[in-house]
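Quick one, probably user error.
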C-alpha cells in the first residue's frame, strides 16, 4: 500500500469517529477536541502524534511529487523548501581567494613569506611546530610571522594551519594526494615540487615579491638585510663556492627570495616548461641545467647565490652562529631523522644565545647527526664572500 492510500485511510477513520461525537467539525479539530475519560490522557497524546506524523508525511510526499524530485533525494526537497539553507552552507565553507590572503599578509612594498604544508608535516609535534618555534626564539623574527602565508596542499594541512596561523591558503590539486610524506625523488615528491614552481609563478604574476622557505628551514635571524638589492632571483645553496655570482654554485630550492617583474615571470615559466625536456628530474636539478642557458641572459635575469655562512644547512652548516640567519634540514632522508636533527638544532641555538650576549665565537652546531651526508661532495673553502652586508634592507615591516 502506498503512502497516499495509508494517509487516506487514516483520514477516513478519523472522520467516522469524530462524526459520531461532535458532528460537522473537521477531522483535525475533532481529534484535538474529543472528550475522553481522564484515564485516556496518554492515549489521546498518541492519537494526536500519529495524526500529526501522517499529515507531515503526506505534505512532504506531495511536495516531492510536485517538484519532480527523484525519490530518496530528501536533501533536494529540503533545499527547495528552505533555499536559504544552501546559501548559509556555501557561506560557511567558502575559502579565501589567494589575492585576498596575499594582500593581507604583504609588507608595504608587496613582499610575502611563503611556505608549503602537507598533512605529514602538519601533524602536532612535527615540522611545522618546529618551524614556528624557530621564529619564536630567533632574533627579530617573530614579527615576520605577520607576513607568512602557509600554502596547504591538502585538507588536513589547511585545518591545522587555521589552528596555528592567520594567513592560510588551500592549494589542493584535483586527482593528486600530497598528504603523505613525499620521499626524495619519488613520483609524489616530483609532482609536489613542480606544483610549487607553477604556483610561485602565479604569485609573481600577481605582482608580489616573495621569500619562499621550506618549513624545515629554521629562522634564527631576520634574513632581509642579507639579501642583494640588485638581484631578481637569489637562492640558498647546498654548496657555496665563495662568490655569489658564480653559476657553478649548487642551489637549493628550499629557500629563495624573488622580486616580481617581467624577467622573473618569464624565468619561472621557462623553468616550469623545462620539466618536459628533463623528464624525471626535480626542480632543483633542472635549475642547475638551465642556469647557464642563453635564455636567462637574453631576458636579463640577475641571479645571486646566498652564502652558506648566513643561510646554512645540514649539507653545509654555517660555521659561525654569530652570522647565521637560517638553517635548513637538507641532505636528510626520512621524517624521523629530520625531526631528530631539527630539535638538536633548536637546542643548539638556545644554548648559544647566552654566550652570544658575551660575544663568544667558539660555539658550533651539533648537527648533522641522524641526517646522512654520505652523498655530499666535500670541497675546500674558496674565497671568502664580502664581510659587509650586500645592502641595507629596503623592507618596511
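Nope, works fine. Designed sequence:
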Amino acid at each position: 500500500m502506498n503512502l497516499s492510500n495509508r494517509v487516506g485511510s487514516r483520514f477516513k477513520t478519523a472522520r467516522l469517529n469524530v462524526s459520531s461525537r461532535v458532528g460537522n467539525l473537521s477531522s483535525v479539530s475533532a481529534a484535538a477536541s474529543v472528550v475522553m475519560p481522564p484515564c485516556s490522557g496518554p492515549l489521546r497524546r498518541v492519537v494526536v502524534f500519529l495524526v500529526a506524523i501522517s499529515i507531515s508525511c503526506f505534505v512532504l510526499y506531495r511536495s516531492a511529487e510536485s517538484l519532480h524530485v527523484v525519490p530518496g533525494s530528501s536533501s533536494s526537497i529540503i533545499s527547495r523548501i528552505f533555499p536559504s539553507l544552501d546559501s548559509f552552507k556555501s557561506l560557511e565553507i567558502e575559502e579565501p581567494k589567494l589575492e585576498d590572503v596575499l594582500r593581507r599578509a604583504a609588507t608595504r612594498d608587496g613582499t610575502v613569506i611563503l611556505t608549503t604544508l602537507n598533512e605529514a608535516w602538519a601533524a602536532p609535534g612535527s615540522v611545522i611546530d618546529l618551524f614556528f618555534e624557530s621564529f619564536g626564539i630567533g632574533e627579530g623574527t617573530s614579527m615576520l610571522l605577520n607576513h607568512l602565508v602557509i600554502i596547504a596542499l591538502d585538507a588536513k594541512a589547511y585545518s591545522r594551519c587555521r589552528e596555528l596561523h592567520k594567513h592560510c591558503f588551500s592549494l589542493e590539486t584535483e586527482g593528486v594526494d600530497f598528504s603523505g610524506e613525499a620521499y626524495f625523488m619519488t613520483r609524489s615528491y616530483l609532482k609536489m615540487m613542480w606544483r610549487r614552481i607553477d604556483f610561485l609563478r602565479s604569485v609573481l604574476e600577481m605582482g608580489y615579491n616573495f621569500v619562499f622557505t621550506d618549513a624545515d628551514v629554521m629562522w634564527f635571524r631576520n634574513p632581509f638585510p642579507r639579501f642583494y638589492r640588485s638581484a631578481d632571483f637569489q637562492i640558498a645553496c647546498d654548496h657555496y663556492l665563495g662568490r655569489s655570482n658564480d653559476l657553478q654554485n649548487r642551489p637549493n630550492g628550499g629557500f629563495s627570495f624573488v622580486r616580481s617583474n617581467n624577467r622573473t615571470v618569464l624565468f619561472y615559466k621557462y623553468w616550469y616548461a623545462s620539466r618536459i625536456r628533463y623528464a624525471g628530474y626535480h626542480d632543483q636539478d633542472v635549475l642547475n641545467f638551465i642556469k647557464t642557458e642563453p635564455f636567462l641572459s637574453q631576458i636579463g635575469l640577475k641571479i645571486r647565490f646566498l652564502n652558506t655562512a648566513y643561510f646554512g644547512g645540514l649539507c653545509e652548516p654555517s660555521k659561525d652562529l654569530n652570522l647565521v640567519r637560517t638553517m635548513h634540514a637538507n641532505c636528510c632522508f626520512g621524517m624521523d631523522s629530520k625531526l631528530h636533527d631539527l630539535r638538536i638544532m633548536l637546542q643548539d641555538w638556545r644554548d648559544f644565545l647566552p654566550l652570544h650576549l658575551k660575544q663568544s665565537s667558539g660555539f658550533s652546531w651539533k648537527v648533522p647527526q641522524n641526517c646522512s651526508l654520505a652523498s655530499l661532495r666535500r670541497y675546500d673553502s674558496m674565497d671568502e664572500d664580502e664581510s659587509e652586508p650586500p645592502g641595507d634592507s629596503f623592507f618596511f615591516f
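The first strand starts at residue 111 and ends at 117.
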